[in-house]
Design brief:
This protein has a single domain, classed as Rossmann fold (3-Layer(aba) Sandwich), CATH 3.40.50.150. The chain has seven helices and seven strands. Strands 3-2-1-4-5-7-6 form a seven-stranded mixed beta sheet. β1, α5 and β2 form a beta-alpha-beta unit. α1 crosses α6 and α4 crosses α5. The longest helix is centred in the middle third of the chain and has 14 residues.
Length: about 190
């Protein structure tokens, strides 16, 4: 079966069917935040995906969460390249279906899952690495949840957007003119 046929079939089935996970209820994340308007879907370039995984120190024992995962390329790359497991969450059912189809196509559907839902309602406690490509405002809004649910030493990596003066990154790099930021839970900053 061709990749396009797999995607078309899974889209027809719906995101819940293709992920094997129940779709969490989607509610407003925070007062005044409109997810699609605040964070349009923009795929992360491959060199940025690689740099995010490297900056986060992703390894085989890691559980990588991608909040606003789009087509799932970050958790799929973490599984393929490092043998990590991962979960991606997004509020758009069409991209979740594409992510699940892509994971199947890449042979990592046994290590990654995708869910349709609100990233503010996702239980982050199993994560060791959290990937973000959101906005400064959403990153700042997520900070209390990240600090409350992630274990000390967990890593947070953000494509492009930092957390302003609220939380300074542990380290930042620039790849292909794109800033990438790393925070470690429990580190001063």
């Amino acid at each position: 079966m061709k990749r396009r046929d797999v995607v078309t079939t899974l889209l027809a089935l719906g995101a819940g069917a293709c992920t094997g996970m129940p779709a969490p209820k989607i509610e407003a994340a925070a007062p005044g935040i409109n997810f699609p308007a605040a964070v349009p879907y923009i795929p992360t370039r491959p060199e940025i995906v690689d740099a995010m995984l490297d900056l986060g120190g992703v390894g085989e024992q890691d559980v990588v969460y991608d909040l606003g995962c789009g087509d799932g390329r970050i958790v799929i790359a973490a599984a393929k390249r490092f043998g990590a497991s991962g979960i991606g969450v997004d509020i758009q059912s069409d991209v979740i279906a594409v992510a699940a189809a892509q994971a199947h196509w890449e042979g990592v559907s046994n290590r990654v899952r995708f869910a349709l839902g609100n990233l503010f309602e996702l239980d982050l406690r199993p994560a060791t690495v959290v990937m973000l490509y959101l906005s400064v405002d959403l990153n700042i809004s997520l900070r209390p949840k990240l600090l409350a649910e992630l274990r000390p030493g967990s890593r947070i990596v953000s494509n492009r957007f930092d957390m302003a003066d609220v939380w300074r990154p542990t380290r930042s790099i620039v790849v292909a003119e794109t800033p990438i930021h790393l925070w470690r839970v429990g580190a001063k900053g």
